[in-house]
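Thread title: Can someone regenerate the structure for this chain?

I was given the following input by a collaborator and told the matching structure tokens would be attached. They weren't. Posting the sequence so someone can regenerate them.
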Amino acid sequence: MLKSKNSSSFSLDWINQIPSSIVIIDTDFKLISASPIWLTNFQLDLNTIKGNYFIDLFPQLSQELKARLKYSLDGLRDIKFKYNAKDCHYSSKDSIWHFNPWKDGYGNIIGVIIKVEPITKTQELEIELNKTKYILNEKSSIAKIGSWDYNIKNETLNWSPVVHKIFGVAADYKPTLEKAFNFYLEGNCRKTIKRSVNEAIESGKPWNEKLQLQQANGTIIWVNSIGRPKYSNGKCTRVIGTLQNITDTIAQPTVKPVTQPNKYPLFEKVPFGLAIINFATGNILDVNDEFTKLTAYDKEHFLGLNFRTFINAHIKNKSVELKNQLKENGSFKSVKFVYTNQKRHNINIKMTGTLIEGLSGSKNILCTFENITSQIKLERNLKNTIASAREKNEQLLNFAHMVSHNLKTHATNFSLLLNFLNDETGKIQRSKYMNMLFSASDNLSETIKGLREIVAVKSSINEEKKSLSLNESLFVVEQNVAGLLKETNGKIINEIPETTTVKALPAYLNSILTNCITNSIKYRSEDKKPIIILSIEEEKNYTVLSVEDNGLGIDLEKYGDQVFGLYKTFHRNKESRGIGLYITKNQMEAMNGKITVESMPNQGATFKFYFNKK
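Best answer:
Regenerated them for you:
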């Protein structure tokens, strides 16, 4: 790591070898240095801009840049900023800038490091989505008019909070166009809203309609639906509009559907959920107590509710098939689906249905709902156990083959050398054979050591993982490789936030960090000082450690399927055993993680370690 009391004593030659787009600013906001990639991307010459006021390079962004630079100098880490290329004349590509404090070896902040990365499509969509949500929330008025926005390309529908209230759903409800259509009363209202949306998209026709819809709790209300298309480059890309509850202004009062429960023998006695559904309309007429326990809702929540709002999309796609089975056979075969009850618990349900006659002579469907969550878990555990046993058997067989092959090779070598030694009478030649035997013995010991390391990885799988500070573990490893770093003039650039933790086995984490750092030093380019950059990305299920170097790299087109193989080496290095990456891969997988590599010959390598958060 860099050690100095002030920025002026730093040697910044290393930045010329950085394979990333980086620029360094001092505490006076003056540009100190920049990597070749950054200069190329922005078409700038370091000799011309060095020492200049950095904000003057981007006058259109002066306020945003100044604020973020100040925050970084206050110690805040990983401040993000979206750079729009159209606003400036230096670059034709949009990007994300990451601002981080630049510290000396004593922990003093002496400037700011800005790392520039290409913006991904996912990041653009997230920014656009947040902007849309903000606009929708701002447009709700005193008249309780809700706003909505439909993106045609992404097929995403966004509602303001008022629209959620009008439909009677929770604020975290995720709407789709098809779901929204199904709230409107079946018949003219639903046909009208579908036709209006299609005409807006296809022919640019706006609409203003008064329609009836059924809220999630079964209440029927009147709404005023207004929509109009929005065009980009002559093509309809979005449809926006408003929705207002106008029930109080309509002469016809709002009436909650009156249902006459149809009672059947043993309806409340069976140990599983039952529901009676009108065959013609799909409305729920009655449910038993076991059904309410299963769903965690009161009975009143379901009375009058259309059954299609209860089942998920998987069953909806089968609705025509199930209806045909009822017509032909008077029942449908059992189907399974996952239901999220009011307590936010996911339940595996098996549903069956039988056609019955109601008390008034109408056709109804008697549906049974059985909670099979425990059964599914047992089946899943059994499958996992079988798969694990099969995998262990395969690993054992592979290990047996490996041991047999490796030891047979050594045994053959020993046998030949001993025969040669026995037949040789000359002292000089016998001495040579003895040296060869000693060398063969060392190689055998190294092979056995490697096999023992592999066994140690496999036998530690069931140890409990702990939440470990990544920087504390890295500090220990840095001390252990300090001699190597000094000998090779290597540098480690640590961009890991101080608060970052990973779930891991302590011994494994130390081994993984040591392996990846020593590999970066071991396979360095002869004409470059080794530079190692460590950074962190957070994903849904993983904390991802990225280790980037400027070494020899690997030809992945040639060796891609062998990188993590046992005894596989790709460079003429006398210290290479071809076992380090194999063990590292096994250690990551033993902790339910994974490892990937990105590399090109003579352009360094980036290894990514995915630490599972569970």
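The chain has a mean pLDDT of 80.
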